[in-house]
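Our consortium's second objective concerns turning raw sequence data into structural hypotheses that experimental partners can test. To show how far this objective has progressed, the report includes one record in full. It was chosen at random from the queue rather than selected for favorable results. The single chain below, 511 residues long, was entered without modification.
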Amino acid sequence: MVGLGTLASRIAGLIRDQATAFYFGAGPAADAFFVAFRIPNLLRRLLAEGALTPAFVPVFTERLVSGGTRAAGELFRGVFTMMALALSCVTALGMIFAQEIVSLIAPGFSQNPGQFALTVLLARILFPYILLITLTALAMGVLNSLGRFNVPALGPVALNVCMILGAAFLSPRLDTPIIGLALGALAGGIAQLAIQLPGIVRAGVALGVANPFRDPAVARILKLMAPTALGAAAYQVSVFVNTQLASFLQEGSVSWLYYADRLVQFPLGVFSLALATAVLPAMSREAAVGDRAAFRAIFRRSLDFQFFITFPAATGLAVMAEPLVALLFERGSFGPESTVMTARALAAYAAGLPFLSGASLAARAFYSLKDTKTPAKVAAVSLAVGLAAAIVLLKPMGHVGLALASSLASLVNFVWLAVLLRRAGDLSLGPFCADALKSAALSLVMAAALWPLYGGNMFPLAPRATLVAAGLILGPALYFLLAHLAGSKGFGPLADLLGKLVTKFRGKAGK
């Protein structure tokens, strides 16, 4: 359910990016918007997804198991009140000091006073988004813990729809068109929160405010949030530094990295983050009742499926990078040069997709056990590795080097977390590595079969849509056939899911 909702959101997101590319291309205005929007997005990933959700869901689930919906609802209201007050202050400070923040994030923009001033204006418009999206993430955590996934998964669609409407209808009517896109994003933040709240009420949790200092569990959540925020900060610092470095490269570098990252986020969100979102409450419940064997079984099965999906997704993105980028974005102000540059960054980002996915799931295993310090320490080390690699690769490889450095950091992050889980007895590395290598090998066979369509230039006059459609059909078909013949463990959850869907469909047809 989460995957299908995320798929709808990602499709809407691709249409949004297509609209952005069409109206604004990869020029100064687009770079200004992406930097400005990255500021609240950095805080969103740091506070909402990075710290609050992993700290809140295990404690809320524990309260739900021990005290029922009413007691859990009181905890939700306390945390909601605390976050609303704190982030209102953060928003106000961010709007006041937007100029200093932009100077810190994109110092290269100071060489172009017009672009710098536009970025500051957009940052002030977008800063309230962090308040809205953090409260939305809290509401989504409540619904996921209660086993309700549909509304939270569809919420991000509202953001993308609002941004598309802003670009299409507001921008042409404004003296500074890019402001229409920023206003659309702000409206999308309001819409996302508004969509979640009725679902919470229907689930039996009352809305309102509560004194956050009366409930000791709120203090526990804050205590868990601190190291989780540090762990999330490690990745966000990497994004921050990459943006800084990209601002000194040729014009368009920030946008090329953005568009490439958006395409990687498609499989990451639909499969990896969707699975991690659904698994966190499940592992938290098993940890709350002390069933460590069930906890391990959920984690291992999820990890196998994660790599089973992300290895072919990564190789497919790398092989199909150029026709895919051209099909989705090359129109209007987005020209052939931007296609080539974005495709190179996409291939570099794709190399780290399996490990970024695996690290996300491994971190959630620690969060379920209320251990937020370990992932934070590992993330800090991987950050140092990524930053060192970015500095080394920047001059010879430009923006592609920045993307490759991010992939290297993801690899280090996952490998270290996996080793620590093995020491704790929660992961057998030998069998897991054998299955992961099998998925990687099958993905390479798939890539070799697809190469004549793309790298081999066998059909140079074929329409882009035909080439992309052929890859999306033939690649997975070949991979799943090979995985079935090879007895891949990752194929099990997929077969189970398809079997349940067929049974459900037959049941409805019979009625």
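The partners drew two points from this record. The first helix runs from residue 2 to 24. The CA atoms of residues 424 and 443 lie 31 Å apart. Both points have been shared with the crystallography group to help prioritize constructs.
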